[in-house]
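Write out this protein's structure.
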Amino acid sequence: MSEENASSDKKQGFSFGASVALFVYVLSVGPAFRIFQHCENSVAWKAFDIFYAPVGWLMDTPLRAPLDWYIGLWTHRLPLSRILLP
């Protein structure tokens, strides 16, 4: 019975850790965008685009407004949707 509990604990721990890592990854887009917004190096922007492409895909979902708001907190700019949408 203790082996089953240990296995279950490992699965729960992995699930929790993966969830936290995903949450931190999505939240890291704000500080990263603030750092890169003044960067003129095209290679750096390409790396940013590749690393944060999954977050960009979220912009086509109902999460667009919260993401715009969050990125706006870091960049002190209007949300992307106000710039792109009429």
